[in-house]
């Protein structure tokens, strides 16, 4: 019987906590939002930061002309960075490595993990194109010495080379290495390294702010019932449930 009454009391406490939340209606909420002043210049800088970091050269140029917002970096460097990114995405890794070295040789010299991943991607492309002999020679001459220096590299190398053991790589346990997503992963890594070499943040600020918004809303959910943004893609504020 005591267990029964404990359950009843717990349920009552939960209801009391729920009803004790502060209720904020839409009118009051929007008034509070309108009281927060955000400069248009700051919003423009956020947009430009996103366009530059993600490499949208044409959009950045157009936005610069329309808003008068100057990028924090030379547009020409964005073009060079995008060329490297596209080369990796298209599987032209050797060309990408050359372009990186043309931009700044220290990028790969000071980042052995990035260089290994680029060479790993180059090995994947050889396997993708059925160049078995070239793939084995490349693995032995270029990647094996790196594997001897780093156990993590060795494991990644062994995993990649094991693709050669499968006739139908699309159904093998490590077939994802041949997916477009693997190219995109490598491209993002090299893009971030180039940005950091140019003293820029590797990630745009806008997604971080959206993550912060989600976190703040989750914290506020425990204390109040309020108009909430449930779909960030449309940013529609929804009325709170009474």
UniProtKB/TrEMBL annotation:
Q: Which SMART domains match?
A: CRA, CTLH, LisH
Highest rank taxon of the organism? Eukaryota
Report domain CTLH positions: 77-134
Against Pfam families, the record matches this protein to: CTLH, LisH
PANTHER family under this entry? RAN BINDING PROTEIN 9-RELATED
Its protein name is LisH motif-containing protein
């Amino acid at each position: 019987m005591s267990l029964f009454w404990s359950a009843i009391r717990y349920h009552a406490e939960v209801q009391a906590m729920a009803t004790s939340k502060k209720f904020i209606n839409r009118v009051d909420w929007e008034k509070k939002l309108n009281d927060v002043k955000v400069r248009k210049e700051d919003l423009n800088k956020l947009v430009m930061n996103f366009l530059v970091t993600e490499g949208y050269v044409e959009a950045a140029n157009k936005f610069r002309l329309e808003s008068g917002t100057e990028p924090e970096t030379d547009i020409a460097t964005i073009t060079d960075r995008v060329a490297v990114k596209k080369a990796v995405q298209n599987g032209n890794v050797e060309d990408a490595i050359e372009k990186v070295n043309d931009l700044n040789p220290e990028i790969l010299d000071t980042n052995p993990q990035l260089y290994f991943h680029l060479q790993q991607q180059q090995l994947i492309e050889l396997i993708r194109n059925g160049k078995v002999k070239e793939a084995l020679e490349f693995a032995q001459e270029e990647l094996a010495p790196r594997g001897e220096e780093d156990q993590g590299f060795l494991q990644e190398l062994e995993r990649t080379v094991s693709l050669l053991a499968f006739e139908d790589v699309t159904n093998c346990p490590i077939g994802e290495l041949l997916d477009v997503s693997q190219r995109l992963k490598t491209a993002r890594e090299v893009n971030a390294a180039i940005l950091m070499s140019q003293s820029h943040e590797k990630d745009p600020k806008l997604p971080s702010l959206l993550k912060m918004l989600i976190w703040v809303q989750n914290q506020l959910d425990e204390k109040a019932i309020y108009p909430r943004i449930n779909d960030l893609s449309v940013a529609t504020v929804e009325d709170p449930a009474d």
